[in-house]
Amino acid sequence: xxxxxxxxxxxxxxxxxxxxxxxxxxxxxxxxxxxxxxxxxxxxxxxxxxxxxxxxxxxxxxxxxxxxxxxxxxxxxxxxxxxxxxxxxxxxxxxxxxxxxxxxxxxxxxxxxxxxxxxxxxxxxxxxxxxxxxxxxxxxxxxxxxxxxxxxxxxxxxxxxxxxxxxxxxxxxxxxxxxxxxxxxxxxxxxxxxxxxxxxxxxxxxxxxxxxxxxxxxxxxxxxxxxxxxxxxxxxxxxxxxxxxxxxxxxxxxxxxxxxxxxxxxxxxxxxxxxxxxxxxxxxxxxxxxxxxxxxxxxxxxxxxxxxxxxxxxxxxxxxxxxxxxxxxxxxxxxxxxxxxxxxxxxxxxxxxxxxxxxxxxxxxxxxxxx
Length: 371
Known about the structure:
Blueprint: H1 2-62, H2 74-77, E1 110-113, H3 120-127, H4 131-137, H5 139-142, E2 154-157, E3 162-166, H6 173-179, H7 184-188, E4 207-211, H8 232-237, E5 275-277, E6 284-286, E7 291-299, E8 304-310, E9 315-325, E10 332-333, E11 338-342, E12 353-359, E13 362-364
Antiparallel strand pairs: 1-2, 3-4, 5-12, 6-11, 7-8, 7-10, 8-9, 9-11, 9-12, 12-13
């Protein structure tokens, strides 16, 4: 009986609590939905308010100063000011209306007229070919001697390094190629030779380009005159030579023989075994080292007025194209003292100093001796 009473009491409590709990649940849902709806309407209202305010400011700006949105928010919405003037720190670039399409390859031989101040070396640099190529192409007029240039002379300038060859009767492509140390195809396929591989006949006196060809140079240098020579030397060397005995000896070091220490024409190369030093007309020329004068005067081989000094230690120096000579053959000279003036006598196209250095009778590069 007691147990039944307890169960009856539990049932009564459940029946009383269920309606209360259900009411609480409904109330919670109602409150949460109300909050959600209010939040949505609040957000929507804020957006509409902002949109309305912005559109009003834009309308005001369109009839105002033209550069700002509204008055209160002018600093927030102000547009930057632009100027057509370049800033001091900006990078300036020049407009290049030309398009570089690369260097034009030349295949034909052109004719160049020698002007005052020209040299084989200068011309070769201008046309980007070796000076030997120009001498070889003009061997009939220069005979490999760059000192034979004269103003007004016309030179053939090949388009590439090699031999510009005048075809002879009996020549063959194979023989000419072997002579100048190239493959026959170099001659056959050079465009301006206009040869047909099926008919390689070339008429005599036709000029043919031998690209890459080379040969030995003909030497046209003043013979070395030693000290203590006999009178017979004068007959071999020229009117400026003399019989000598002994004199001053060199220091073994050399100085620049002119005021300037740079070139104005030919550098030292196989066809020009000397330096053409920049020196104006009648500028002083100095002894590069002490020694004995073994030649002083005119030379018939293109050097013009020249001086040769034997330094007594195996070295000799030569100074050519002088306007005047201020020393005599057989006299001693000392380093740094004047021996003459620079000029353009002999085979020369302009004032300069032709300077040679020799050792034991052979020519050496002056660059290896000068400071």
